[in-house]
C-alpha cells in the first residue's frame, strides 16, 4: 500500500501557498477566473461528457443503484446549468473585505470586524459531478484554496471539471493550486489528509453518514458537517381550502428529483389526525402514482391499506429513494416532538392556514431550514439567492443551512488608532 504522507503534505502545502495569494486578490481578478471557468465548461463539454460516460459505464457494471446513477449522469442541459451556476457566483458581491461591524471607541480608536477567507478547505463529497464546479467556484470567490475529494464513482468526470477549473485560474494569472483534486480513490489516504492540520483549516464532508462519522472521528482539523437529510412535512389540522396545495407540495418535495436521491427531499409526512381523514389517502395515491413506496403506521394504513407497515427504524431513516414514511399524530406538539427526536436538523416544514400554528412550528422545530407552505426541495443555495452552495450545514456553529460564498469566510478584528496606548 502506498505511503500517502508525502502526497497529503504536498496537497496541503500547495493549497496553503495558493490561499495566501488569494487572500489579497481583488474581486475583479477572482471573478474573471470564475467566468473563464464557466466558459471552459461549455467549450469542454465533449471532454466532460466522454469522461462522464466512462464513470456511468463503470457504475452500471458495478451495480450502482439507479438513483445514484442518475445523480452521476451529465448531459448538455446539466452542463449548461453547471456553467450558469458558476457564472452566478462570478457576478455575486465579494464577501472578502466586507465590514461586518465598525465602532469608534470613546478614545477615538476604531474597531472593525472584517470578513476574510478561511484559508484551505478540504471538501469530501458524493457522486454528483456538478458539485466539483460549485465548490471550486465558491471557494475561489471567497478567497479560499480547496482540496477536492469526490466519490470514486465520478473520478473521471471530476478530473475533467477540475482540470478546466485549474486552467481557467491559471489563465487569470492566479495560482492553479487554488483548486486541487485528489487523484486517487484509495480510502487509505483519507485519514492521512485529516491529519494535515498545519496546512488545512476546515473540512467539509458532504456524503453518506458513514463517511461523515469517519471524518469526525479521524480529523485533527475542524469539521463542518453536512449530515443526513431526514426531512419532514407536517400537515396541520388547519388545511381547509388548500387541500390541493398540500398534495402538490408533498408530491414535489418527494419526486421533483429523479429517484428522490437528494438531501432536501422529504422522507416523512406527519398528518394531524383531522387532516389525515381528509387528505392522507389522496396524498398517498398521488405519491404512489409517481412510483413512491409508502411505509406507514397503523393509523395511516387504516386510511391507505396499500401502504407497507413502518418499523421503528423507519422514522430515523433517510431513504434517498422513492420511499416515504407516513405517521398520524394527534397534535402539532406531537409532530414537533417527533421531528426533534428523529429528524436530522436539516429541513422540515409545515402546511397550514393557521398563522399561530406556523409560528409555533417555526419557533420550536430545531432545523437549519423551516419551510412554511413550501416544498422542502427549496432548501437550496440557488433558491435562497446564494447562487450555488458547497453544502447544507446541519451544524450550529459558524454556518447553518445552505452555504454560499460568505459562509466560507471568517473574520478578523482591525483596530486603527492614532498612537493609542494602554
Fold blueprint:
Layout: H1 5-22, H2 27-43, H3 45-61, H4 66-72, H5 76-91, E1 99-104, E2 110-117, E3 120-124, H6 130-141, E4 145-149, H7 155-171, E5 179-181, H8 189-193, E6 202-205, H9 209-218, E7 231-235, H10 243-255, E8 266-272, H11 273-289, E9 293-296, H12 298-303, E10 308-309, E11 323-329, H13 332-342, E12 347-351, H14 355-364, E13 369-372, E14 392-393, E15 401-402, E16 409-416
Parallel strand pairs: 3-4, 3-6, 4-5, 7-8, 7-12, 8-11, 9-10, 9-11, 12-13
Antiparallel strand pairs: 1-2, 2-16, 14-15
From the structure above, extract its key features.
422 residues; 18% strand; Aldehyde Dehydrogenase, Chain A, domain 1; 2 domains; four-stranded parallel beta sheet; Aldehyde Dehydrogenase, Chain A, domain 2; alpha/beta
Classify the secondary structure makeup into a structural class. Answer: alpha/beta
CATH level 1 class label of the largest domain: Alpha Beta
Largest beta sheet, briefly?
A: 7 strands, parallel
The fraction of residues assigned to DSSP E strands is 15-25%
Secondary-structure element series: HHHHHEEEHEHEHEHEHEHEHEEHEHEEEE
The poorly predicted ranges are none
Strand sequence of the main sheet, in spatial order? 10-9-11-8-7-12-13
At the fold tier of CATH, the topology name of the largest domain is: Aldehyde Dehydrogenase, Chain A, domain 1
Tell me the quaternary state: single chain
What is the number of domains?
A: 2
Distance between the termini: 58 Å
Gross geometry: globular
CATH superfamily of the largest domain: Aldehyde Dehydrogenase, Chain A, domain 1
> Count of DSSP helices?
14
Amino acid at each position: 500500500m502506498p505511503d500517502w504522507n508525502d502526497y497529503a503534505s504536498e496537497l496541503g502545502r500547495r493549497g496553503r501557498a495558493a490561499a495566501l495569494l488569494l487572500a489579497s486578490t481583488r474581486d475583479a481578478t477572482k471573478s474573471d477566473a470564475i467566468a473563464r471557468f464557466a466558459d471552459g465548461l461549455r467549450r469542454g463539454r465533449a471532454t466532460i461528457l466522454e469522461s462522464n460516460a466512462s464513470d456511468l459505464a463503470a457504475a452500471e457494471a458495478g451495480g450502482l443503484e439507479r438513483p445514484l446513477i442518475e445523480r452521476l449522469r451529465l448531459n448538455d442541459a446539466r452542463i449548461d446549468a453547471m456553467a450558469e451556476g458558476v457564472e452566478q457566483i462570478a457576478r455575486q458581491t465579494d464577501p472578502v473585505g466586507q465590514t461586518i461591524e465598525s465602532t469608534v471607541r470613546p478614545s477615538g480608536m476604531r474597531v472593525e470586524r472584517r470578513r476574510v477567507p478561511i484559508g484551505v478547505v478540504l471538501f469530501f463529497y458524493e457522486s454528483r459531478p456538478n458539485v466539483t464546479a460549485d465548490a471550486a467556484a465558491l471557494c475561489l470567490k471567497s478567497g479560499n484554496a480547496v482540496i477536492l475529494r469526490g466519490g470514486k464513482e465520478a473520478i473521471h468526470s471530476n478530473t475533467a471539471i477540475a482540470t478546466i477549473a485549474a486552467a481557467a485560474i491559471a489563465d487569470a494569472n492566479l495560482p492553479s493550486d487554488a483548486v486541487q483534486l485528489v487523484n486517487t480513490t484509495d480510502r487509505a489516504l483519507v485519514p492521512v489528509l485529516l491529519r494535515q492540520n498545519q496546512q488545512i483549516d476546515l473540512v467539509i464532508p458532504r456524503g453518506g453518514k458513514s463517511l461523515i462519522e469517519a471524518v469526525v472521528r479521524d480529523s485533527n482539523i475542524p469539521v463542518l458537517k453536512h449530515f443526513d437529510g431526514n426531512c419532514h412535512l407536517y400537515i396541520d389540522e388547519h388545511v381547509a381550502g388548500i387541500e390541493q396545495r398540500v398534495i402538490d407540495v408533498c408530491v414535489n418535495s418527494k419526486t421533483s428529483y429523479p429517484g428522490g436521491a437528494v438531501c432536501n427531499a422529504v422522507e416523512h409526512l406527519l398528518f394531524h389526525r383531522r387532516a389525515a381523514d381528509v387528505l392522507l389517502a389522496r396524498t398517498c395515491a398521488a405519491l404512489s402514482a409517481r412510483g413512491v413506496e409508502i411505509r406507514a403506521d397503523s393509523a395511516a394504513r387504516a386510511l391507505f391499506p396499500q401502504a407497507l407497515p413502518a418499523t421503528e427504524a423507519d422514522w430515523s431513516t433517510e431513504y434517498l429513494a422513492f420511499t416515504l414514511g407516513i405517521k398520524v399524530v394527534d397534535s402539532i406538539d406531537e409532530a414537533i416532538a417527533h421531528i426533534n427526536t428523529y429528524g436530522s436538523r436539516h429541513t422540515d416544514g409545515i402546511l397550514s392556514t393557521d398563522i399561530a400554528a406556523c409560528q409555533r412550528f417555526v419557533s420550536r422545530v430545531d432545523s437549519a431550514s423551516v419551510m412554511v407552505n413550501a416544498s422542502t426541495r427549496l432548501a437550496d443555495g440557488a433558491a435562497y439567492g446564494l447562487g450555488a452552495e458547497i453544502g447544507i450545514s446541519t451544524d450550529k456553529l459558524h454556518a447553518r443551512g445552505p452555504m454560499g460564498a460568505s459562509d466560507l469566510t471568517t473574520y478578523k478584528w482591525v483596530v486603527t488608532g492614532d498612537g493609542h496606548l494602554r
